[in-house]
Amino acid sequence: MNSPIQLTPVGTYATGIFDEGAAEIPAYDPASQRLFVVNANRAAVEVLDLSDPTNPTRLFEIEGAAFGGVANSVAVRNGVVAIAIEAEVSQDPGSVVFLDTDGNLLKSVTVGALPDMLTFTPNGQKVLVANEGEPSSDYTVDPEGSVSIIDLANGVENATVTTADFTAFNAQIDQLRAAGVRIFGPNATVAQDVEPEYIAVSEDSKTAYVALQENNALAVLDVEAGEITDILPLGFKDHSLEGNGLDASNRDEAINIQTYPILGMYQPDAIAPTRSTARPTSSPPMKEMPATTTLFLKKLELPI
């Protein structure tokens, strides 16, 4: 049996904010030894000095309002900081700003509505942005979900944007529902109803997998072509089976895990790829994909 992994905290930084999203997404730049952290409570990115990891120190913050909205996500590569900015009106197009590690603006580009997450491709040539496209509370405005592909091949200052949408799937709405994709918005098309949440990119930077959390599905993005090529339903978890129990109430102030004759959706939030030579023994039905990489969606493991 393998020995358990032992983790020991080296240092801690506290925002002083309790029970709020005050330290949501971290991104580390090894050259400057700075950590960039999304503080959703302040709608900003805090910049910490980790040169002494036993004593993380706050240097300054990058305010989302300075760029017209709210900072939702941050990623760093080779000294370039990318921040997803949600517009003041969430249904309006958002933006991605590129800065150096001192917070100086290098470039700003327009992306889709409500950019919720972004990531550099492994080769560093592109930034992919999950534009969630959430509707207004009364559904009078329901922007389309999309994925923006920001090309950095000619440098950050010359960045260009291609946005991959889901309109090609609008005519397949009945087939997608029958396959298990949750499409539920009132009078919404497929393109309006999908809400890209998170992105995982293959090692060769050619393919990305996009979590459609509310839709209980994954989208497949051809990065080079700039097109969504597939929507894959994730299926359901059978909570009647032993080992699939759940605690169905938060009102009894007790731990009470039991099986129930119900099905549950996976609805992944964050996802990440990792190399693997083994294929899981069971998984929801998906199209055949190479077994050299495994995609982890919360606690659900799928071969890709």
Can you walk me through this structure?
There is one protein chain. This protein is 4% helix and 42% strand. It has 304 residues and is mainly β. It has a domain at 26-233: Methylamine Dehydrogenase, Chain H. A hairpin with a 2-residue loop joins strand 22 (293-297) and strand 23. The protein starts with 25 loop residues before the first strand and ends with a strand.
User: Which stretches are low in confidence, meaning pLDDT under 50 for 5 or more residues running?
Assistant: 282-293, 298-304
What is the CATH first-level class name of the domain at 26-233? Mainly Beta
End-to-end Cα distance: 28 Å
State the strand order across the main sheet: 1-2-3-4
Quaternary class: single chain
The ordered string of helix (H) and strand (E) elements is: EEEEEEEEEEEEHHEEEEEEEEEEE
Query: How would a crystallographer describe the biggest sheet?
Result: 4 strands, antiparallel
CATH architecture of the domain at 26-233: 7 Propeller
What proportion strand? 35-45%
Helicity range = under 10%
CATH homologous superfamily title of the domain at 26-233: YVTN repeat-like/Quinoprotein amine dehydrogenase
Q: Give the averaged pLDDT, no decimals.
A: 90
- In DSSP terms (H or I, runs of 4 or more residues), the helix count works out at 2
Radius of gyration: 20 Å
